[in-house]
Each structure stands twice: as C-alpha cells, then as structure tokens.
Write a structure and sequence with these properties.
Elements (H helix, E strand, L loop, with lengths): L5 H44 L4 E6 L12 E4 L5 E3 L5 E6 L7 E4 L5
Antiparallel strand pairs: 1-4, 2-3, 2-5
C-alpha cells in the first residue's frame, strides 16, 4: 500500500460498504416489486372468483324417463352451454344475471 494513507483506505472501505448497501437495496427493491406483483395477481384471481355465480344442474330425459346422453343444453342468446354426460346429467355455471330460456337439443328428438 505504497502512497496510501489511512484516510484513503478508510474512504475505500466506506465506498465499498456504500456500494454493497446500494446493491442490496436494489435487490430488496426487486424482491419487494416481485412481492407486490404477486399480491396484485392473487387479489385479481380472488376477486375474479368472488364474482357471483349461478349453477344449474339437472337430468335430460325422454318421455319414458330414459336419460338422453350427450344432449346440448344452453342458455338462449348467450354462449353459455354444455353437454349432458352418459347418464343425461348436465351442469351449467354462469355469472351473467338475467332471465334466460334454456334450450335442450339432441339428434333424433324434438
């Protein structure tokens, strides 16, 4: 350390500490920013799930009470619909308020 004084080495030490503090604060700022984004995403997902939903379930049968498999069940004037399973059971989930006509159709039935 030829030509260096105690003040210079102390100054270098402070510069080194200051650089590390700034470096860690950038890291902490990045971590905090990531946490904020994470919490905002969680809040968005939760608020989307808290929206009021209505569920309609039922069984589609023919005149002899036999289940009709794979019949189309949908709400008129919407894109909300489903198919019945092999036992004729359907489940509709939707969140749009209103009064709808339910339409059921299947090949070979009127």
């Amino acid at each position: 350390m030829k030509g260096r004084t105690f003040a210079n080495s102390l100054n270098d030490h402070y510069v080194y500490l200051l650089k590390n503090i700034l470096k860690s604060s950038k890291t902490n700022k990045f971590k905090i920013m990531r946490l904020k984004i994470f919490f905002i995403a969680i809040l968005f997902i939760l608020s989307h799930n808290l929206k009021a939903q209505t569920t309609i379930t039922g069984i589609v049968t023919d005149s002899l009470n036999n289940p009709i498999p794979f019949a189309s069940v949908y709400l008129s004037k919407t894109t909300i619909g489903t198919l019945t399973d092999k036992e004729g059971i359907y489940l509709l989930n939707f969140s749009q308020e209103g009064i709808y006509d339910m339409i059921v159709s299947s090949i070979g039935f009127k």
